[in-house]
Amino acid sequence: MGRITAYHSPGFAAPIGDHLMPIGKFQLVADAVRGWDFVDIRVPEPVSEADVLRVHDRRYVEAVKTGLPRELAESQKFPWSPLLYPSVLLTSGGVYAAAKQALIDGSAAALASGFHHAGPAHGEGFCTFNGLVIAIDRLMHEGAIRTAAVLDMDLHYGNGTAICCRGRPYISQLSIYGNDYWDNAVYRDVTTRHHQDGANHRSAALPAGCDRATMLAIMNEHLPYLLERAKPDLLLYQAGADPYYEDPFSPLKLNHDDLLARDRAVFRFAKDNALPVAWVLAGGYTRDTSKVVKVHTNTFLAWREVYG
Ligand SMILES: [Zn+2]
Q: Residues of the chain whose pLDDT is less than 50?
């Protein structure tokens, strides 16, 4: 049976107190899959400041590091602490390590978020540094890849990654989302606000009340976009837990089995097209955190069905 490497560090979780973002889930997911006989857990190295500066402005990086100016340091809506900066170097390191491992093994996971709302000059929506783009740019810098694709299936549109796509023609991003993020506020009705798709980023909305059949049909229609411009050397998959129907932000009708079907479809797409795939744990805010954790551990079961 195949094995999967998942990167985790207790240092992924910055101390943000009692927060809407259940940052403790990274540890809970690691604890849940640690005993599974097809999962190897490894600790990643943090990325360097130079890795971050390929993606984010120096003024913003300094703010996250020093806490000043405070408004910029907390633009992602976390209370700043000196532990924030090392934690986001580690989560980005987790995404990089998983991406690099996927180039060797064909697939790997980072038990951290990709933080897709973070743009070059500020954070947003609990996202400090964009680990997806940091990982891609480091692999580009190392000559390990020439092209990369990001499939974002968090509930929320991946606006930070889309902004980073400008000036990075080697990335293709597809964001299949069911809710929006605009000025740090949540908009439920994605039919009233449309995104400006660019040359290398596309958005596809899941309508309110979306069920499994509708979701899979929309995925089938749009997934080929990721192969259109060039075959990507790497696929990064934002496996969000917030499309789940009990999530306070979700207008969708997707239960655990439906999201498992989503993950299975993503892995089949990657396997059928021989794309190395690394996935990360994106958002999830259901009050009962065990339901968030189950979405994420189910991604491992979907992986086993396709690759195991
Ligand atoms: Zn989200």
A: none
For 245, the domain range is 4-307
The CA 118 to ligand 1 mean position distance, Å, reads: 12
Phi and psi torsions of 199, nearest 5°: -60, -30
Distance 241 CA to ligand 1 centre (A): 8
Per the structure block, which two tokens stand in for 301? 């079961």
> Ligand 1 centre from 252 Cα, in Å?
13
For ligand 1, the distance from its centroid to the CA atom of residue 143, given in whole angstroms, is 31
**Structurally, how many domains does the chain consist of?**
1
Straight-line distance from the first to the last Cα atom of the chain, in angstroms, rounded to the nearest whole number:
5
pLDDT of amino acid 192: 67
CATH number at 98 reads 3.40.800.20
Q: 142 CA distance to ligand 1 centroid (A)?
A: 30
Note the pLDDT of residue 75: 92
| CB-based contact 90:44 (threshold 8 Å) | yes
Q: Are strands 148-152 and 171-177 parallel, antiparallel or unpaired?
A: parallel
What span, in angstroms and rounded, lies between the C-alpha atoms of 97 and 14? 19
* Interval 28-58: pLDDT, tens: 999 999 999 999 999 999 999 999 999 999 9
| Helix axes 256-272 and 289-307, enclosed angle (nearest 10) | 30
Measured distance CA(139)–CA(161) in Å, rounded: 16
The pLDDT value recorded for residue 155 is 95
Rounded to the nearest angstrom, the distance between the alpha carbon of 81 and the centre of ligand 1 is: 23
Cα(237) to centroid of ligand 1, in Å? 13
Neighbours of ion ligand 1 (CB under 5 A): 154-156, 242, 283
The amino acid occupying position 25 is: K
